[in-house]
Amino acid sequence: MDSLLVLILSAAAMTAIVGTRYLLVSGAFAWATKIREPGLYAGLDIQIKREIGWSLASAAIYGIPAGIVAWGWDNFGWTQIYTDVNAFPAWYLPVSVFLYLGAHDTWFYWTHRLMHRPFWFKAAHAVHHESRPPTAWAAMAFHPWEALSGAFVIPVLVFLIPVHVGALGVVLATMTIMGVTNHMGWECFPKFIVNGRFGRWLITATHHQKHHDAYRGNYGLYFRFWDKMCGTDLGLGDWSRRPHERS
């Protein structure tokens, strides 16, 4: 088969995978919200349709570079993705996951903070904040310019940091689940984690909800490290009132 056609099919397949993953995970947590917090998304049908539309557009923007890299890895050995679990010491598996999450979180913090500058907010990031309140469907609801800013992070990292294919799967699963749960309008982590020592450094829905309320601060994705270092950590949000009831 012509290599160009294979490349196109790889990009299309990865786009389909990203889009399907989004629909399944966001759909599962939207269903969980209906059971756990009935009525929380009442009256948000138009907003949810808009979130799904933007998110599926983002799926293509994320999927195309991922498909190109996957094609290069399969055909030419591009990247430092490896399949032999013995290629590196066992301790490197969790370390590589942390390295990827830390690097992704760093990129996200600074680009997210940039997106809140007046020009970039109006040009791109306002799309994400049109979700008032955000729902489980809003995790990938980005303007194409913003989606593009995040689409190349993992594809670039696989050229720089060795990672087992299974560890990479853990990174992608974490990225997807935390992206959805941080937006769904209620906290799925137990209080002893959110309010405990671990929660001081981990971003969950209670922390990210504060960002959507205040529009400033709490810019991180996984960890509160950069927010704490840069004085932009606003602390935890308040669930005493439902998001759709907030002023």
Provide the succession of SSEs: HHEHHHHEHHHH
Distance between the termini: 58 Å
Strand order of the largest sheet: 1-2
Count of runs of 4 or more consecutive helical residues: 10
Radius of gyration: 18 Å
| Average pLDDT, all residues | 94
- Show unreliable segments: 243-247
Strand segment tally = 2
What kind of sheet is the major sheet?
A: 2 strands, parallel
Structural class: mainly alpha
**Strand-residue proportion:** under 5%
What sort of overall outline do the alpha carbons produce when their principal axes are compared?
Answer: globular
Helix content: 55-70%
How would you summarize what this structure contains?
It is built from ten helices and two strands, in the order ααβααααβαααα.
Considering the chains and any ligands shown, give keywords for the structure:
two-stranded parallel ribbon; 63% helix; 247 residues; mainly alpha; 2 strands
Topology:
Elements: H1 3-36, H2 45-76, E1 81-82, H3 92-115, H4 118-129, H5 144-151, H6 153-160, E2 163-164, H7 165-181, H8 191-194, H9 205-214, H10 225-230
Parallel strand pairs: 1-2
Describe, in plain words, how this protein is organized in 3D.
63% of the residues lie in helices and 2% in strands. With 247 residues, the chain is an all-alpha fold. It has a two-stranded parallel ribbon with strand order 1-2. The relative contact order is 0.14. Residues 243-247 have low confidence and may be disordered.
